[in-house]
Design brief:
With 360 residues, the chain is of the alpha/beta class. The chain has 15 helices and 18 strands.
Length: 360
């Protein structure tokens, strides 16, 4: 782990949990503070100049009293890929300029790790028993935190892979920007277990994805997981438009093609940069040197800034065409885009999108 953790808060409801024991054993020199509630968050928000940045150095272990599993919220009028999300951790030690967690978790600016994962498995058992569909349920982590960034502390990946690889009618994905794969390489993969990487050109990784692995390290990690019988996914999301970006993104595709075989890739997604009005000001304040909010963007119906349609479609067409040329049999889909993007770029509309078997 290359992240700096300065404090560990443990709710008294989690003191004796295996999760707390594992994390404290891995970080024996970090101060541990027992607490009955999360009022300490108010002190962080009041005292720190950058609560979001400071919160990435603080772990809070507690029980999740809500649901672990939920449907991906998607966005208004966008075609949904019928993805379900598991949240074991909220917040992330990575610090990407465009990350929505800066806005979404502004009242909880610490890394919250849930201790009652046994409840997660019971919840998923119930969901799978009631699914009763003819196509697989797609479940993944990575919405509220990077799936593997803290895995050397939690070991969650091993528990999840061992649980899901014996389940029928489900596809499970761990999504990351890291190369932290030691735990998942310690066990055998399976056809229904997908390790997914978000990818961007190295110059974007350097400028806007602080703490993440290099592009080469991500692809090398994917190659190692492929050899261990895992399926692989890549997410070109968010695409950042700048002068010369087409060549840079095509270079990313060429690197992937030279390392990962088509038979190993479960799917590839494409999505362009999008952010809300509050996020715009958060990014300007926290990352004044970043240039990504100064593109040709407009406020759309879903209250998010997106690149204007001609620019978005142009980059989508180039990336989609290059991907289909490199991987003609791999499913490529658009994340949080409306039907006109599918029609104009891919030439077809996925009428059976809800039936994920048809696409994935």
């Amino acid at each position: 782990m290359n992240f700096e953790i300065q404090k560990i808060f443990i709710n008294r409801n989690s003191i004796k949990s295996s999760v707390s024991e594992k994390i404290c054993s891995a970080l024996p020199h970090i101060p541990i503070i027992e607490t009955e509630n999360d009022e300490f968050l108010n002190e962080i928000k009041a005292e720190e100049i950058d609560p979001v940045g400071y919160g990435k150095k603080v772990i809070y272990i507690t029980r999740n009293e809500g649901d672990f599993l939920k449907k991906c919220p998607g966005t208004r009028k966008a075609i949904c890929c019928n993805y379900y999300i598991l949240n074991l951790i909220t917040n992330c030690p990575l610090d990407c300029t465009y990350c929505i967690l800066q806005q979404y978790l502004h009242n909880n600016p610490v890394i919250k790790i849930f201790s009652n994962i046994e409840n997660l498995f019971s919840e998923v058992d119930s969901a799978l028993n009631s699914w009763g569909k003819q196509y697989p349920l797609r479940i993944g982590t990575g919405e509220l935190s990077d799936s593997l960034a803290l895995d050397d502390l939690t070991g969650f990946s091993v528990d999840l892979v061992e649980y899901f690889k014996n389940k029928e009618n489900v596809i499970f994905e761990l999504k990351t920007k890291t190369s932290n794969i030691d735990n998942i390489l310690s066990i055998e993969g399976a056809e229904n277990i997908v390790i997914g990487w978000s990818v961007n050109p190295q110059n974007i990784i350097d400028s806007d994805e602080k703490g993440s692995a290099s592009l080469d390290a991500r692809i090398d990690a994917a190659r190692k997981c492929e050899k261990n019988d895992y399926k692989i996914a890549f997410h070109f999301d968010p695409l950042i438009i700048y002068e010369g970006c087409e060549n840079d993104y095509c270079g990313v595709i060429d690197k992937i093609r030279s390392s990962i075989s088509p038979e190993s890739i479960a799917w590839i997604s494409i999505g362009a940069l999008r952010f809300s009005e509050p996020m715009k000001w958060i990014m300007k304040e926290r990352f004044p040197d970043s240039k990504i909010i100064y593109g040709e963007q407009t406020l759309c119906e879903d209250k998010k800034y997106r690149y204007i349609r001609p620019l978005r479609e142009e980059i989508f067409k180039k990336i989609y065409t290059r991907l289909k040329k490199s991987y003609p049999k791999v499913s490529v889909y658009f994340c949080m885009e409306e039907s006109y993007i599918w029609k104009d770029v891919a030439g077809t509309l996925p009428h059976c999108m809800k039936e994920t078997k048809a696409l994935f």
